Amino acid sequence: xxxxxxxxxxxPPSRQLRIAIQTRPARAVTDEWDWQILAAxxxxxxxxxxxxxxxxxxxxxxxxxxxxxxxxxxPVITECATxxxxxxxxxxxxxxxxxxxxxxxxxxPNPRYTRTPRTRTQPAPAATQPPQTR
Length: 134
Description:
Blueprint: H1 13-23, H2 57-72, H3 77-86, H4 99-106
């Protein structure tokens, strides 16, 4: 095509920006975080929500129970749980759900080491065998 043909030109940057603004409405960054202002855990010591290194099972269960008690009084428990599930938050108690409970809901073995989600009805991938040679 001819370089002078206006149909072959890329729109100027100002026009590209207008196109982007028209197709993607702007949202305030705080829209996704405002719920945290109302959280019952706001300002609390985070140790009951996140596990320390080398935590034993009994202490873990006690800590999770304490964290869930705080969550049950929270006015934004649903928003918190939704956030943790949508972002695949790997650590801590969020929205009254432990790491293991979130992994179960998401159908993954562990929220810390997952790459691709699986549905509950979808079986684990079978081990592949190398092709046999003759």
